[in-house]
Amino acid sequence: MSLFESDKSAERLPVSLVTGFLGSGKTTLLNRLLRHDAMKDSAVIINEYGEVSLDHLLVERIDGEVAVLASGCICCTIRSDLEETLRTLLVRRDRGEVPPFRRILVETTGLADPAPIVQLLLNNPLVSHFLRLDTVVTTVDAANAIHQLDHQYEAVKQVALADRLLITKCDLVSNIAALEQRLRRLNPGARIESVMHGEIDPAGLFGAGLVDPEKKAVDVARWLNEQAFAGSREPAHEHHDHAHHGHDGGITSFMLAFDDPLDWMAVSNWLAYLRSARGADLLRVKGILNLRGEATPVVIHGVHHVFHPPVALRDWPDADRRSRIVFITRGIAREEVLAQWQAGRVAA
Q1: Which residues are CB-neighbours of 114 under 8 A, at least 6 positions away?
Q2: pLDDT tens by residue, 137-153
Q3: SS3 state at 65
Q4: How distant is the alpha carbon of residue 322 from its chain centre?
């Protein structure tokens, strides 16, 4: 019997974050999304009704915090904190006090760090038992993003943590090639797409989590997106890795791959050290592990010092049995991460 919990992600409600710097088009995106028939069974959480121009969509106020939109979606404002809001919303749905919904969208403020919300969904037992992180969507203002990335670390971090990057206001600039290149350098694993006036098919926007929402099955290849980090196809040795370096606040992204099965205690101690010593600079880590003594792969996922409990999948997704771990860091070079791995193995 595995020491790790089994994957039950398909049974949990998907939560997606819509983030992006001030004026980058988050609200425009939400307004367009919530008009799609496919989004009618959604709940959207915002900070204040007055801050978000959704008022023309409100058709019924259930109380001061929850409203039904013309599309049939539920819209609510954050209470004292997001955890309380999420839990209350689920309780009210189960009691029939609000219309049913099958997904939740959370819009952050323009200066917000999305990491605490991701951490809440990864490792808060009162929330993660019912909800799962699906997608982090970051809107990027084509006209102002270069300046923002140069001067605002919040904007850099919103890009680095994203699964989907939406370039908005493309009609205001003549060429976005330099911006696209910079975004790929910051976060090679994210899908980048240009949108006009928030128009995008929801089917292609969400569903970046470990579970494929259509097949209700695990899709490691899409979630890990290791091909974005593979600069070559040389034969694998004990490990090989590919790194992408940027000049945006020292952000670096790389993937490590290990051919032979790994010892869980060595991996656990290695990650524990990185979280303890460099947690503030460990922006996002996700991987699939082939562990000694485990018949099926184990998935890890963390942001900063908070990691989701390791999850054992039911089966290997394909014939590739390598362990693969993607890191997005600030000021932590791959050489440092590898050195700590080697030091831990020698000590063991």
Answers
A1: 17, 19, 108, 136, 138, 157, 158, 161
A2: 999 999 999 999 999 99
A3: coil
A4: 23
